[in-house]
């Protein structure tokens, strides 16, 4: 079993969250036209990038508040 990238897992989670809120899942994308699928995935990727940036900001904020406890 290989190591997984936690950020990649989070990104996929956010993409699935966006798709679900839009009434889709990864499997149902196959029923869309290529243009519709590309548009939806571009929106999902932007959503995921925004959410990842938010997570990163919160982590930095918590680090500033609490300092490095390692």
Chain-averaged pLDDT:
89
Number of helices, where a helix is a run of at least 4 consecutive DSSP H or I residues: 2
Percentage of residues in DSSP E strands: under 5%
Span between termini: 28 Å
User: Per the principal axes of the C-alpha atoms, what is the gross shape?
Assistant: elongated
Which structural class is indicated by helix and strand composition? mainly alpha
Annotation, overall tally of beta strands: 0
Structure commentary:
- The chain has 70 residues and is mostly helical.
- The protein has a domain at 32-70.
- 70% of the residues lie in helices and 0% in strands.
- It is elongated, with a radius of gyration of 16 Å.
What is this structure, in a nutshell?
With 70 residues, the protein is mainly α. The chain has a domain of 39 residues. It is built from two helices and no strands.
Q: Keyphrases for this structure?
A:
70 residues; mainly alpha; 0% strand; elongated
């Amino acid at each position: 079993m290989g190591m997984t990238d936690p950020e990649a897992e989070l990104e996929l989670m956010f993409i699935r969250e966006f798709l679900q809120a839009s009434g889709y899942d990864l499997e149902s994308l196959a029923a869309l036209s290529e243009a519709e699928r590309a548009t939806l995935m571009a929106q999902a990727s932007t959503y995921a990038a925004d959410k990842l940036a938010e997570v990163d900001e919160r982590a930095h904020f918590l680090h500033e508040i609490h300092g490095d406890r390692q």
